[in-house]
Specification:
The complex is a heterodimer of chains A (659) and B (217). Chain A has 8 helices and 44 strands. With 659 residues, chain A is mostly beta strands. Chain A has a domain of 130 residues: Sandwich (Immunoglobulin-like). In chain A, strands 6-7-8-9-16-17-12-11-10 form a 9-stranded mixed beta sheet. The termini of chain A are far apart. Chain B has 217 residues and is mainly alpha-helical. Chain B is 47% helix and 3% strand. Chain B has 10 helices and 2 strands. The radius of gyration of chain B is 26 Å and the shape is globular. The chains are: A mainly beta (659), B mainly alpha (217). The interface between A and B is large, with 42 and 45 residues.
């Protein structure tokens, strides 16, 4: 018995160790023991913010909760997503159409929330495609991609999708200058200086519907446009773009585009551009670009190929664009909440220049120019400069603001976030990142009204922060509490793809607008089946349309015979459920595309071309009820020319299909 | 995962035993009693532990119980606020109205109380009900007394009061969670009736359609 007592005591001691382990630990090198509590959101509780993060080379956008860092959803935008049938269902295929045809992948770098009066409003979020230049609008009621517009005369849409303060325009600037689309492109690459142009695009956004249209483009000199931000408040009406490779190199840019001491920030007077368009100064230039829209009533996307675009010539019109010299290949181009200060971050510089909007206007008025570049006036550096942040760190990239007079800049080379005061340009605090931070995000941090409780750093390198998973490691973000004077790291969390820019917004502005299901009575899909009584199979030559319904837990019909080799079968599946969180899936053995995932009240279509004679099972892939495993059926495929009549059934009934 | 070797607790046996074998039934019992409800998210911490085997099985259980009770004490207090998640699944496992004297099983629970029904049929209303039924109900309910996914509708208006039926149609989740008759039906069908988000008018028209089906003229 004595030994037993010893054992009990020993166990109790060990149990004590277990309690210790209940407490969070190792939350980060720089964190205190209270950090984990700050990032802890209890089971069943909601997060305070949505964090909408670019998915980089995944082409998608991801949705996290803050402060927990929990991943809620990956929204398919520019890449196909077999899980959701995006880009595979007949209804969603047109979303990925371009002037090059169907493009299944892209590289989404930046996200930008719609704004009203310079404040984030939670209606839409935009994303850019960096490879095949496009801009997407995601509806934050459905968290689905609502629209994608392609950009002609562009290559590598990087300085996008930044917006004006009432979401009048979303902009896009070409990263790679190229010969315009309607010019002869079959020319030597080393004629860059003569033949390559840099186009920036202004996409208008309709106030109520959000529908986008390519309003106009401005032809600028051939350089690399990198990032941009709109003026706000007093500087509303202007847009600022950073650009590098003003050397106009076409090879070994790593060296050849880093020759000049200063490149430029280009200030664009878009109100002036509007005036010129009204005055008829823009040219209609032939172009070819796709405009794809998803209709929430028909649950179907359409793709329209547009044929021309309005173009303004910056050189000829003289006073739309101005260059401001900015040291060493500027990357981030960020405007403070008052609209007065423009922060340029030369990624090879060891200082941060801060430009003054007022001084810039005066310099333009007083013609304080330092000559011109390719016909565009270059404002004298000192004439536009408010001041420089000296020795802030190495490799400044991006800046966000807290609305309390402070700026937060990321430093890639020295792996840190640095807080500094905009007025006196003094460094106030620095916090390490793990490792090599790129973008950062403060909720509303690029708007007129930041909600500066947290700062999220999106890192390029993770190295030793997570358990290894072979050569490729997780991408990651780090959360800092910035409510006090000092930044405090409170959480690491993994992200999908490579996170570039991100936006965050108070959940209150988004949560209650979420669609829970689509009303079946409002479903206008051409192939909707409103009730099992309408379920049917119709043959039109070798095309077979299956009008199918799904509800917990069966398909109607679930037995189909008389399909023949050579047939093209369309399964139009309508989910009859009218409750939240009850999608049904649909999959067929051997299908060469993907599954369907059908939201309540929605219709989605799978195209299927049977590849052999036999019996093919189909089933629901999304666990829907206790009898989900029963939610299945069979399709019989007969040889070409077989006399098996087309028939379909559910349960006992077995009517013969109308031919 | 925390691994405790036999040496640490002075035992000779080197065999490892999955903790779950012993702790799972205990925790399950506690869960059933809702005593552990606040702490369930931490159960996995315990779950992952392996302990070196002890010789006496009863002894093991006793030890685990002791360990667990201590653990409960230490974890219970700061997690009290977690239990408010209101998913239907969780609500389902809480109280049933069966033993509640205030619950009116004839009426059910929902917005409908005293529903006055005309002795004659409103044909136009019944027609509307049929249209709604074709889209939202007919997949699972037959008009005969045959059970498909849910029970057949024949005779339903004599089995339940109008208020009960209307409440069940419009307040489905709460009814399934609380109403003893609805719960008994769930045990037969095993598929929770989907909330089809019927408006009050849709529900009333469906009721009229059920009456027509039951022979009201």
């Amino acid at each position: 018995m004595k030994t037993n007592l010893t054992k009990i005591l020993a166990l109790l001691l060990i149990t004590g160790l277990v309690f210790q382990s209940c407490k969070p630990k190792n939350a980060g090198n720089a964190s205190s023991s209270g950090s984990a509590e700050k990032a802890y959101v209890a089971p069943g509780k909601y997060d305070e913010f949505y964090n909408l993060v670019s998915g980089g080379f995944s082409g998608q956008m991801s949705v996290y909760g803050l402060p927990s860092g929990r991943l809620f959803r990956v929204i398919p935008v520019f890449s196909v997503d077999p899980e959701k049938g995006y880009g595979y269902s007949e209804e969603t295929k047109p979303m990925l159409n371009t002037s090059h045809g169907f493009v299944p992948w892209d590289d989404l770098h930046h996200t930008e929330l719609s704004q009203t009066n310079g404040e984030v409003d939670g209606r839409w979020i935009f994303g850019n495609a960096n490879n095949t230049p496009r801009v997407a609008r995601i509806d934050l009621a459905s968290f689905k991609t609502a629209e994608i517009i392609e950009l002609p005369n562009s290559a590598g849409n990087h300085s996008s999708p930044f917006i004006t303060e009432n979401t009048e325009y979303v902009v896009a600037g070409t990263r790679f200058s190229v010969p315009p689309d309607n010019a002869n492109g079959d020319i030597p690459i080393d004629t860059y200086k003569e033949n390559f142009k840099g186009y920036i695009s202004f996409i208008s956004v309709k106030k109520e519907s959000g529908e986008m249209d390519l309003a106009f483009q401005i032809e600028c000199p051939g350089v690399n446009f990198d990032l941009s931000h709109a003026g706000k408040g007093k500087s509303n009406g202007w847009f600022f773009f950073s650009c590098y490779n003003t050397e106009q190199a076409n090879t070994l840019l790593e060296v050849n585009a880093s020759q000049r001491d200063k490149d430029f920030i280009m200030a664009v007077n878009w109100k002036k551009a509007e005036e010129y368009i009204k005055a008829g100064k823009a040219k209609r230039i032939p172009a070819k670009y796709a405009h794809n829209k998803y209709n929430e009533k028909t649950h179907t996307a359409t793709s329209e190929m547009k044929k021309e675009v309005l173009v303004l010539d910056a050189k000829a019109l003289k006073d739309i664009c101005y260059f401001i010299p900015c040291p060493k290949s500027p990357h981030g181009c960020d405007v403070d909440p008052t609209g007065e200060y423009i922060v340029g971050s030369g990624k090879l510089a060891a200082l941060i220049p801060v430009f003054s909007f007022d001084k810039m206007l005066k310099a333009i008025e007083g013609k304080q120019f330092d000559g011109s570049f390719e016909g565009i006036p270059v404002i004298k550096y000192e004439a536009a400069l408010y001041g420089e942040v000296k020795k802030p760190g190495l490799g400044p990239l991006h800046t966000e603001f807290d609305g309390k007079g402070n700026a937060y800049t990321t430093f890639f080379v020295s792996s840190e976030v640095v807080k500094w005061n905009i007025k006196d340009l003094k460094v106030l605090d620095r916090a390490p990142t793990y490792y090599s931070v790129g973008h950062l995000c403060i909720p509303g941090g690029d708007s007129k009204k930041p909600n500066a409780k947290y700062l999220i750093a999106y890192n390029k390198i993770t190295k030793d922060r997570y358990l290894p998973t072979g050569p490729e490691l997780t991408q990651s973000a780090q959360l800092y509490d910035i409510s006090g004077d000092k930044m405090e790291m409170i959480l690491d969390f993994p992200t999908i793809g490579e996170p570039h820019y991100a936006q965050a917004i108070s959940a209150d502005l988004v949560r209650d607008r979420s669609i829970k299901f689509y009303k079946i009575n409002e479903n206008e899909n051409k192939y909707v089946t409103k009730g099992e009584g309408q379920a049917k199979v119709v043959r039109e030559g070798n095309v077979v349309h299956v009008y199918m319904t799904s509800i917990r837990s069966h398909f109607a019909p679930d037995n189909i015979e008389g399909i023949k080799m050579g047939d093209v079968v369309y399964f139009h599946v309508t989910n009859l459920e009218q409750d939240w969180d009850v999608p049904h899936g649909f999959a067929i053995k051997g299908a060469t595309n993907a599954e369907l995932l059908i939201m309540p009240g929605e219709t989605q279509t799978m195209k299927w071309e049977p590849d052999k004679v036999g019996i093919f099972p189909m089933y629901c892939t999304d666990f829907c009820s206790a009898l989900h495993q029963e939610m299945s059926g069979y399709i019989r495929v007969s040889p070409k020319g077989s006399s098996v009549p087309l028939s379909y059934s559910l349960g006992k009934t077995k009517p013969i299909a109308k031919n | 995962m925390i691994k405790i070797t036999f040496g640490q607790i002075g035992l000779k046996s080197a065999q490892y035993v999955d903790f779950q074998e012993f702790i799972a039934p205990i925790i399950y019992t506690y869960r059933r009693e809702s005593l552990l409800y606040d702490c369930t998210h931490k159960v996995q911490n315990i779950w992952a532990i392996t302990l070196s085997q002890q010789k006496n099985h009863t002894m093991k259980t006793v030890t685990m119980m002791l360990a667990l009770s201590l653990w409960l004490t230490s974890c219970g207090s700061n997690d009290g606020s977690n239990a408010s998640a209101d998913s239907s699944a969780q609500a389902a496992s809480s109280e049933s109205a069966g033993g509640n004297p205030d619950y009116d099983p004839k009426r059910g629970t929902g917005k409908f109380t005293d529903v006055v029904i005309s002795p004659t049929l409103d044909k136009a209303l019944a027609e509307k009900g049929k249209a709604t039924s074709d889209v939202k109900c007919g997949s699972c309910h037959k008009l005969t007394d045959e059970k498909l996914v849910g029970p057949g509708w024949k005779g339903v208006t004599s089995r339940h009061t109008p208020a009960w039926i209307l409440n069940f149609m419009t307040n489905t989740d709460e009814m399934i969670n609380k109403d003893p008759v609805a719960q008994a039906q769930l045990e037969i069908c095993l598929v929770r009736m989907p909330n089809q988000n019927l408006s009050d008018d849709e529900a009333k028209s469906l009721y009229e359609y059920m009456r027509q089906n039951d022979g009201v003229k």
